[in-house]
């Protein structure tokens, strides 16, 4: 079995830490994206592991695809970087050929096409989020098999298992920026607290219609206090 | 046409010394004899209309259409060689479908026109093929609103407020120029379209004809269907369909009357001129 | 060797925007013997005139069955017709396999039209040299289509192709308004009368040279050749076939001599449409 990450046997749940190829880096991860009143917010932890070893504690799992479309990557770092690069190429070409930027749905569709047709070769769980001219902020999730799901918010990665209840309890439609960021941060804090494969800093990207993307960083040694500093990108 | 017979017009993809591709120009000739076909981009949609000469009463009326639906929100009318037009439309349908597959969206009109322009252009590049003997008028609507484009055998295309091709294009064009298309509604537009087809019709030479007319529209019914459509349905709410029969018949009736009245006035005018000459 | 510089292949437009090779292919249809098709509300019929190359040779095929609900009549190069009808058979079987239904007539006609169009746009290909009348029944009722080598297809109430087919068209144009409500037999008879009008003066419809096919709503395509055509020819005979007419003319002559009354009878025997609708009218 290639993609098995865990199975149930008589001696309990056995987590196969060796399911990746030798030396492959895994984003055992907590990622999420939400719609809010003015657009979308993407959030992620920053831990990258190779087996039990933390290969990178300040990883950036939020990746820009176009001006106003980003994605959260989980699974194999190599696979998801490669997929993001390919989709970025296609969407840049789209914009040049058609004279207008692609919609978020289009971006998600290309991600899905690649993830689905190569599902046997890839370990990639990707969240696509962005804003476009006509439909505003949108969030799409593409889990391991290559299916595509649109929702108001989505959570993914190993750490997400621990925060379904949290998110369900605290979710509100059309939150303002402050509420939205608080929702994402508190959710990720919980995920990091309980999930061994998640940790490090919390990164966020806020996308608003017609505005530049805004990056936010929250550090664990400051108890993820709001906000240590802001970075413009 | 002075270079006819010098040999530069015998093969596609060959330039004459003065830089012309004669085979493309000859393909355009095939269109110039085709039926008058027009497109009007109105405020709230687009209209396609064409003059359909009745060559035999044995033909089944309503069959043998000249305007085709390419995607739910796009229609194309062609003038020129009918089988070439059919091929062109099949290709446009393939493009629209692959766009849906790739991008989970209905194809924007400008993008389809661009792709079809490239397709037509490819048929001017090789001596192993001939250019399309058609001009295609592409009508549709997308997120940017109604769109109208006309693609020529050379692959050249432009966006239009109003477009005309075929035998009566000159008369049709000068009529279209009189319209204020950015203010015109579809309901007003179909009357103008019918009238233009009647004006452009050469009743000395041509036999009886009927008007084929379609529009791209978004009424309350279709807009609602787009919103409530099942998950995964990709549609922007615009629909290309035949103009309802009653509306078309009324428009044709009024057009015929208007043109006949105009003719009578012309005849009167001519009569007066004659008298002057007599004096 | 060539009539002009622009008729060597089908990828060259003439300065007037014509494609001569395609027009010549259209001529090939007129070399073939005539075929007539017509439809009522319930049926479509094909009738065709078969030719034999030599006295002792067999008669060529003029009607090809495609499926239980579909058949074609041809005029022109019959090998080309065979290629196209094989293609239609494939389409038809694919439809039954994939959709569990007989292929709609317009679909199969459009598919051969698209195939034919490609032949008019690429160097090294030639247009098909055959015209077809396609008769079939589908969910939307009976249909009759004409196919041309240019890739042109048109749906008709009644149509005729092949040598001297203008005469048949003239007949059809005169009578087609009554076709929708006629019976199965009457429909075939109208077809035979139209076909008869394409005959040369010394020729007549016989069981050897006449081919008939008919298909209707809820009724599979049935083809009639040889002796089985006789019933229809006999029905036609009662209306006055050429042969019957000739025979009656002969007896009238024998019996009557120079009697005035017989002249009147003779005029009556010439049939309802007179010489204008008969084989005399041979203009193309």
Automatic annotation (TrEMBL), chain A:
One of its GO terms (molecular function) is threonine-type endopeptidase activity. InterPro entries: Ntn_hydrolases_N, Pept_T1A_subB, Proteasome_bsu_CS, Proteasome_sua/b, Proteasome_suB-type. Its main location: cytoplasm. It catalyses: Cleavage of peptide bonds with very broad specificity. One of its GO terms (cellular component) is cytoplasm. GO terms for biological process: proteolysis involved in protein catabolic process. The active site is at residue 29. Keywords: Cytoplasm, Hydrolase, Nucleus, Protease, Proteasome, Threonine protease, Zymogen. It is found in: Cytoplasm; Nucleus. Belongs to the peptidase T1B family. Component of the proteasome, a multicatalytic proteinase complex which is characterized by its ability to cleave peptides with Arg, Phe, Tyr, Leu, and Glu adjacent to the leaving group at neutral or slightly basic pH. The proteasome has an ATP-dependent proteolytic activity. PANTHER family: ATP-DEPENDENT PROTEASE SUBUNIT HSLV, METALLOPROTEASE TLDD. Component of the proteasome complex. This is Proteasome subunit beta. It comes from Orbilia ellipsospora. The gene is PRE3.
TrEMBL record, chain B:
Residues 260-279 have a biased composition (Acidic residues). Residues 249-279 are annotated as: Disordered. It is found in: Cytoplasm; Nucleus. One of its GO terms (biological process) is ubiquitin-dependent protein catabolic process. Pfam families: Proteasome, Proteasome_A_N. The proteasome is a multicatalytic proteinase complex which is characterized by its ability to cleave peptides with Arg, Phe, Tyr, Leu, and Glu adjacent to the leaving group at neutral or slightly basic pH. The proteasome has an ATP-dependent proteolytic activity. Belongs to the peptidase T1A family. The 26S proteasome consists of a 20S proteasome core and two 19S regulatory subunits. This is Proteasome subunit alpha type. The gene is PRE10.
From TrEMBL, chain C:
Residues 275-284 have a biased composition (Polar residues). One of its GO terms (cellular component) is cytoplasm. Residues 6-28 form the Proteasome alpha-type subunits domain. GO terms for biological process: ubiquitin-dependent protein catabolic process. It is found in: Cytoplasm; Nucleus. InterPro entries: Ntn_hydrolases_N, Proteasome_alpha, Proteasome_alpha-type, Proteasome_alpha1, Proteasome_asu_N, Proteasome_sua/b. Residues 257-266 have a biased composition (Acidic residues). Transmembrane segments: none annotated. The 26S proteasome consists of a 20S proteasome core and two 19S regulatory subunits. This is Proteasome subunit alpha type. The lineage of its organism: Eukaryota, Fungi, Dikarya, Ascomycota, Pezizomycotina.
């Amino acid at each position: 079995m290639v993609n098995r990450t865990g199975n149930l046997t008589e001696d309990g749940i056995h987590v196969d830490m060796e399911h990746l190829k030798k030396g492959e880096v895994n984003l055992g991860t907590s990622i999420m994206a939400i719609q809010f009143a003015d657009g979308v917010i993407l959030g992620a932890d920053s831990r990258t592991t190779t087996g039990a070893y933390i290969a990178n504690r300040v990883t950036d799992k939020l990746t820009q695809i176009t001006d106003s479309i980003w994605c959260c990557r989980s699974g194999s770092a190599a696979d998801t970087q490669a997929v993001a690069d390919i989709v970025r190429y296609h969407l840049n070409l789209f914009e040049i050929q058609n004279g207008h930027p692609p919609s978020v749905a289009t971006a998600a569709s290309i991600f899905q096409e690649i993830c689905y047709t190569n599902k046997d070769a890839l370990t990639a769980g990707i969240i696509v989020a962005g804003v476009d001219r006509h439909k505003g902020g949108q969030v799409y999730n593409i889990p391991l098999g290559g299916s595509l799901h649109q929702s108001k918010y989505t959570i993914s990665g190993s750490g997400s298992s621990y925060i379904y209840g949290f998110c369900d309890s605290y979710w509100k439609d059309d939150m303002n920026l402050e509420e939205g960021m608080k929702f994402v941060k508190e959710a990720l804090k919980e995920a990091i607290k309980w999930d061994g494969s998640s940790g490090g800093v919390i990164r966020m990207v806020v996308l608003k219609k017609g505005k530049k993307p805004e990056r936010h960083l929250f550090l664990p040694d400051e108890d993820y206090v709001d906000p240590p500093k802001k970075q413009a990108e | 046409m002075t270079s006819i017979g010098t040999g530069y017009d015998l093969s596609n993809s060959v330039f004459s010394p003065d830089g012309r591709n004669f085979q493309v120009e000859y393909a355009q000739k095939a269109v110039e004899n085709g039926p008058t076909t027009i497109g009007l981009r109105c405020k709230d949609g687009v209209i396609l209309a064409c003059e359909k000469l009745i060559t035999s009463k044995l033909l089944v009326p309503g069959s043998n259409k000249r305007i085709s639906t390419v995607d739910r929100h796009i229609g194309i009318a062609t003038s020129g060689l009918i089988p070439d037009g059919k091929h062109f439309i099949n290709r446009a349908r393939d493009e629209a479908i692959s766009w849906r597959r790739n991008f989970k969206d209905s194809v924007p009109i400008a993008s389809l026109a661009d792709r079809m322009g490239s397709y037509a252009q490819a048929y001017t590049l090789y001596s192993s093929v001939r250019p399309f003997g058609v001009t295609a008028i592409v009508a549709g609507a997308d997120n940017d609103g109604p769109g109208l484009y006309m693609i020529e055998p050379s692959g050249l295309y432009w966006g239009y407020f109003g477009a005309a091709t075929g035998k009566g294009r000159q008369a049709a064009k000068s009529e279209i120029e009189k319209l204020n298309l950015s203010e015109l509604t579809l309901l007003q537009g179909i009357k103008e379209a019918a009238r233009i087809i009647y004006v452009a019709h050469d009743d000395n030479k041509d036999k009886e004809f009927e008007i084929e007319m379609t529009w791209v529209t978004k009424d309350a019914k279709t807009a609602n269907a787009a919103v409530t459509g099942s998950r995964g349905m990709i549609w922007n709410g615009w629909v290309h369909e035949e103009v309802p029969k009653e509306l078309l018949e009324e428009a044709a009736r009024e057009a015929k009357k208007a043109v006949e009245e105009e003719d009578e006035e012309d005849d009167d005018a001519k009569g007066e001129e004659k008298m002057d000459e007599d004096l | 060797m060539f009539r002009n510089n622009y008729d060597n292949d089908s990828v060259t437009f003439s300065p007037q925007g014509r494609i001569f090779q395609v027009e010549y292919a259209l001529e090939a249809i007129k070399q073939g013997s005539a075929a007539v098709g017509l439809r009522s509300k319930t049926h479509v019929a094909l009738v065709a005139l078969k030719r034999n190359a030599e006295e002792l040779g067999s008669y060529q095929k003029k009607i090809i069955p495609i499926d239980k609900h579909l058949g074609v009549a041809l005029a022109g190069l019959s090998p080309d017709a065979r290629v196209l009808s094989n293609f239609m058979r494939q389409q038809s079987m694919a439809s039954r396999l994939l959709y569990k239904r007989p292929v709609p007539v317009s679909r199969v006609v459009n598919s051969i039209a698209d195939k034919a169009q490609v032949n008019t746009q690429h160097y090294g290909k030639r247009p098909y040299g055959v015209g077809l009348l396609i008769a079939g029944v589908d969910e939307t009722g009976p249909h009759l289509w004409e196919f041309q080598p240019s890739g042109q297809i048109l749906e008709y109430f009644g149509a005729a192709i092949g040598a001297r087919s203008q005469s048949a068209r003239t007949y059809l144009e005169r009578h087609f308004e009554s076709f929708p409500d006629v019976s199965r037999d009457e429909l075939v008879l109208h077809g035979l009368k139209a076909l008869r009008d394409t005959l040369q003066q010394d020729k007549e419809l016989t069981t050897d040279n006449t081919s008939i096919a008919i298909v209707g709503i809820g009724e599979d395509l049935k083809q009639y050749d040889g002796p089985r055509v006789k019933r229809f020819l006999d029905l036609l005979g009662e209306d006055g076939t050429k042969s019957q007419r000739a025979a009656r003319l002969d007896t009238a002559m024998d019996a009557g001599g120079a009697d005035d009354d017989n002249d009147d009878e003779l005029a009556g025997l010439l049939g309802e449409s007179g010489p204008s609708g008969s084989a005399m009218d041979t203009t193309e």
